[in-house]
Design a protein that fits this description.
Layout (H helix, E strand, L loop, with lengths): L3 H13 L6 E3 L5 E2 L6 E4 L3 H8 L3 H9 L3 E4 L2 H12 L9 H4 L3 H14 L22 H12 L3 H8 L17 H16 L6 E5 L5 H10 L2 E6 L2 H13 L6 E5 L10 E7 L10 H11 E14 L12 H6 L9 H10 L3 E7 L1 H17 L1 H7 L2 H19 L3 E9 L18
Parallel strand pairs: 1-3, 5-6, 5-8, 6-7, 8-9
Antiparallel strand pairs: 1-2, 3-4, 9-11, 10-11
Helix pairs in contact: 1-6, 2-3, 2-6, 4-17, 9-10, 12-14, 15-17, 16-17
Length: 430
């Protein structure tokens, strides 16, 4: 009798102490759970072995990347339903240890062990970042982490990001605008906040594929130095600058921001880069940028933030994102970011939350990926494409539910005279 789905459903509900809001469809063809809900499809019993050896998010992620788990139905709906059981269970939810004190739960786990088959743990998917011992956020480890994330093929990123090749939150003054228009509007917003004028020097930290550098040079007449740790990004950005006839205004370097020594700059943009810095290095990051600015120079720091915790020492990096997406990446609350920028010497003049804009951006990226799914798998790997689809869809929901946010912080290296150079009404860019 095919009953794997019913047994799985019973186990999950025993362990979590809550009803399962999605269907289960197992490798033996059996199904269990709400008939009108999306289905969590367990294609192979190896997925169970992964969960037994790595209970929680990492085990689930490995099974998803390997193609042993899938969703039949709307992915956003499935993730939203599962979020309450996996990511948002709250402090009163019982732990796995508490659940296993229940004799029925222990019996269910023993049944799962038998159902999972041979006891050896499956090897992690090849897309998982292999860890090495040592300190985080050294120049060597940061370069390796950046390469893992960005050096997966520019053609793949063209599918996901579209023609703008901007890998950060777009900005929608017009809700009906295309993604490309919204990304252009974001770059223009950054330029206006920095008050760029012809002849100034701009440092673009984490310059990506060169979109900000090209926009600032072409539309505002500034000279730009862009730095990235990704060889593939740098090559792509240099070609774009050459195609635009802007090589006299744009220099793209493969360089750590800590090694930039040719200040002063009139302005610095850091868009979606500071998440890679790490909490222990953030003050150093802020001090380095402060030292590179001329007096009166402006910094635009565009950065994802997480919600603060009552016990900040309990913060832990998301296991799936750390292993498959942003190795060594860390998020911090916006209040912490502002405080560290101030400690470095900056005067913080404006903080703008554009959280809902990132949710919209991510949904566009997911749609781009799904529309060219077969080619995306060919350009990278099926596992890598699955990583990106899950990561971006889950992140869209996280922004929509206010689990994470994104902020543009405008800060000034205000001279001793106190003349910040800011207008009396700051948001003249709106």
């Amino acid at each position: 009798m095919a009953d794997a789905a019913l047994r799985l459903k019973s186990l999950i509900e025993q362990v979590l102490g809550a009803p399962l809001p999605v269907r289960i469809r197992a490798w033996d063809g059996s199904q269990a759970g709400p008939p009108d809900a999306p289905a969590l499809v367990v294609h192979h019993r190896r997925a169970l072995r992964r969960l037994l050896f790595k209970p929680g998010e990492l085990g689930l992620a490995r099974a998803w990347v390997a193609g042993e788990l899938d969703v039949d139905g709307d992915l956003y709906t499935a993730l939203d339903l599962l979020a309450g059981l996996i990511w948002e269970r709250g402090e009163d939810a019982r732990t796995l240890g508490e659940a296993l004190r229940d004799p029925e739960a222990r019996a269910a786990v023993r049944g799962l062990v038998r159902l999972a088959g041979p006891p050896l743990p499956p090897a992690p998917p090849e897309e998982e970042m292999r860890r090495r011992r040592g300190h985080l956020h050294t120049r060597r480890t940061d370069k390796r982490a950046i390469s893992h994330h960005y050096d997966v093929g520019n053609d793949f990123y063209e599918i996901v990001l579209g023609p703008s090749m901007v890998y950060s939150c777009a900005y929608w003054p017009d809700p009906d605008a295309t993604l490309e228009t919204a990304q252009r509007d974001k770059l223009e917003l950054v330029c206006r906040k920095l008050a760029l004028t012809p002849g100034q020097r701009l440092l673009d930290v984490g310059c990506g594929w060169g979109s900000m550098a090209i926009h600032a040079a072409r539309e505002h007449g500034v000279g730009v130095v862009g730095v990235t740790l990704s060889q593939e990004q740098a090559a792509y950005a240099r070609k774009r600058a050459a195609d635009e006839g802007l090589t006299d205004r744009i220099e793209i370097r493969v360089q750590d921001y800590r090694d930039v020594r040719d200040g002063p700059y009139d302005a610095i943009s850091s868009i979606g880069m500071a998440e890679h810095v790490g909490a222990d290095r953030y003050l150093e990051y802020a001090q380095n940028l402060y030292g590179l600015l001329a007096p009166g120079g402006r910094l635009l720091n565009h950065q994802i933030a997480r919600r603060p915790q009552r016990d900040e020492s309990a913060y832990d990096v998301d296991a799936f994102i750390d292993a498959y997406v942003f190795p060594d990446g860390e998020l911090q609350p916006i209040g912490t970011t502002v405080a560290l920028l101030e400690r470095a010497g900056f005067e913080v003049r404006d903080v703008e939350s554009i959280r809902e804009h990132y949710a919209r951006t991510l949904r566009h990226w997911v749609a781009n990926l799904e529309a060219d799914w077969a080619r995306a798998m060919e350009l990278t790997s099926p596992g890598r494409a699955r990583v990106w689809r899950l990561y971006m869809a889950a992140s869209a929901l996280s922004f929509e539910r206010n689990r994470i946010g994104v902020n543009q912080v405008l800060a000034v290296k205000t001279p001793e005279s106190g003349a910040s150079g800011m207008p009396l009404r700051a948001r003249t860019w709106n």
